[in-house]
Write the structure tokens for this entry.
Amino acid sequence: MNKDYQVKVKICGITGADTALAAVEAGADALGFVFAPSRRRIQPEAARAIIAQLPPFVARVGVFVNSSPAEIEQIARYCGLTAVQLSGDEPPGYSLNLSLPVIRSLRVGNGKPVPGLNGFRADAFLFDTYCEKSYGGTGKTFDWSLLENMACPKPLLLAGGLNPFNVREAVRTVRPYAVDVSGGVETDGQKDTQKIKEFIALAKGV
């Protein structure tokens, strides 16, 4: 592994300012705000208030599932997002209608192969675990060897069941541009500051 390589970390499912600021202090490169149906869903007003407190060089990613481009653009402008993550069934060319950089989430594993990527318009690809009737946040891993030595045309983000116990192995296996975690840094359904610190330190220490 290149000695200059250091994976970036996105902490997703942010719902409180204290958690957001603690994650940034621990070295998070990006924070994710879920605007889709989820127990981690946040209202635009709350996200805007949190984002207003963040330092300038931390990415603010809005996570959407099958929302209209108009709704995404409206929330992005209102909240001050810097990127959009599409985690639903949006068609490959959907992001042509968006003004911000787009992370395209694709679910793989459990018999679902990695799709061809050339038809997708995206600035990065996030790979999550495929589970029927779920668009992510399942807390389950997939076979990382599916992505090993993969020629991804854009930065590759790895998600799906990551936690402080497996993130080092995940980074060594896939060598992603970034890792994305939500449930893996929670205790009893709430973000755990100590787990966030451990996760970031372990991921970046590889």
